[in-house]
Each structure stands twice: as structure tokens, then as C-alpha cells.
Amino acid sequence: MKKLLRACAPALAVLVLSSCTTTNLVQVWRDPNYRAKPVSRIFIIGVMPNDMYRVQFENGLAQALTAKGFQSATSAGAFPPGQLDKEKVKQYVADNKVDLVIVQRLTKKTVEEYVPPSVGYVPAAPYYGGYYGAYGYGYGAVYSPGYMTEQTNVLAETNVYSTSSDPEALVWSGNSNTFNVQDAASAAQSLSAQLVADLIRAQILVK
């Protein structure tokens, strides 16, 4: 998210940051017994009913991993649309010597929020044209009425499995909330950047 945050001009921080898509990890678990080991290949599986969004979020995570020097493949790139066949996925993982499998489940949440009226101070002008002129000028310049705003958030559960055991062992799990989603591409970029950064810090992604 650092790149996204830097894209918001400091001089307009209050206005611009409110329009940037940001991701927070709200709950994270790491297997304390898991020993970090070099990772060469990663397979990404997105679980969502919309195939178009599945492709965008899988590709976003793959791009974030590639940017950090990790090879990755997506279920959308390896298999046709629809429900994945368990045995075919297991065979693909084995044939391609995949080290980690990342499974991501996403849901969308729409939040409505009331923004109350605001009043700001404006220095008096020298002439308003009578008392009503002063009122009209002051109302238009100072008072902002309240309004309803709608914000779309993406909630994600991400689980990372190591293929070094059979069955595969869960080594990392995290829940995240991506706020103020403008489109699927920006949400995928924000979420993926945050996840990859945390997986590196947790020594799950190790070169």
C-alpha cells in the first residue's frame, strides 16, 4: 500500500486519502512451528462466484508476487471457468512442484454512512448588501448540508498452505478489509500488495 499512499498528494491528504482504496489486515495467524524455507513456485486459487472478479484478483496477487521475484500461477490460467476438480488441482500442484498454495475467499460489503452538516468560519466581507445579503452569503459560503454516502468494502480470507506435507499444512491465515473500493482492479492491487508484504514479514515468502 505504500505506493498507493504515495500516489495521494500530501497537500490534499484529507480529500485524496478518502478516495484511495486501502487494505487493513484485521486478523492474522501464523503456524509457530513452521520453519521458513525457500519458495520457488506458488499456485493461487480465488474463491468467488464471479469468474471475471476471480481472474482480476488472482492476477493481482500473481503480479504482486512476481514483482517480489516469486513465480506464480493462477487457477484461472490453468483451468477452465467453473468449480475446480480437486484431483486435477492436486495433480497440477504436484506436476509443477508448487511450494505454496494460496486460497482466497472474497465477499463484498456495502456500507452506508451519514455525513452530518458542517459549518466552517469565513471572515466577514466588507459589504453584503443588507442583512439578508449577509445571510445569503454566509449560508452559501459556510454551511454544507448533511448527506448519505455509500462505500463498498471487500472482505477477504486468505489461507496459505505448504505442500511439503500430505495433506497440505496451513501455515498462514489472514482476514482483511479493503476499504472504499472504486473498482475490482484497484481492490485487487491494494489487497495483493498488503498480503505479499505481510507474508514476506512473516517469513512465509522466502527466497
What can be said about this structure in brief?
This protein is of the alpha/beta class.
With strands numbered from the N-terminus, the spatial order across the biggest sheet is 1-8-7-4-2-3
Q: What percentage of residues falls in helices of 4 or more residues?
A: 25-40%
* Oligomeric state of this protein: single chain
Mean pLDDT: 80
CATH class of one domain: Alpha Beta
Provide the β-strand percentage band.
25-35%
Level-2 CATH architecture of one domain:
3-Layer(aba) Sandwich
Distance between the termini: 22 Å
Q: Would you tell me which CATH topology of one domain applies?
A: Rossmann fold
The main β sheet shows up as: 6 strands, mixed
Low-confidence stretches: 1-19, 131-140
Radius of gyration: 24 Å
Write the layout of secondary structure elements.
Blueprint: H1 2-6, H2 13-17, E1 22-30, E2 41-47, H3 51-67, E3 71-74, H4 75-78, H5 86-95, E4 100-115, E5 118-119, H6 131-142, E6 143-144, E7 147-162, E8 169-179, H7 184-201
Parallel strand pairs: 2-3, 2-4
Antiparallel strand pairs: 1-8, 4-7, 5-6, 7-8
Helix pairs in contact: 3-7
Tell me about this structure:
This protein is α/β, with parallel strands linked by helices and about 210 residues long. The two termini are about 20 Å apart. The chain is about 35% helix and about 30% strand. It is globular, with a radius of gyration of 24 Å. The protein has a domain at about 20-110 and about 155-200: Rossmann fold. It has 7 helices and 8 strands. The longest helix has 18 residues, at about 185-200. The chain has a 6-stranded mixed beta sheet with strand order 1-8-7-4-2-3. Strands 5-6 form a two-stranded antiparallel sheet.
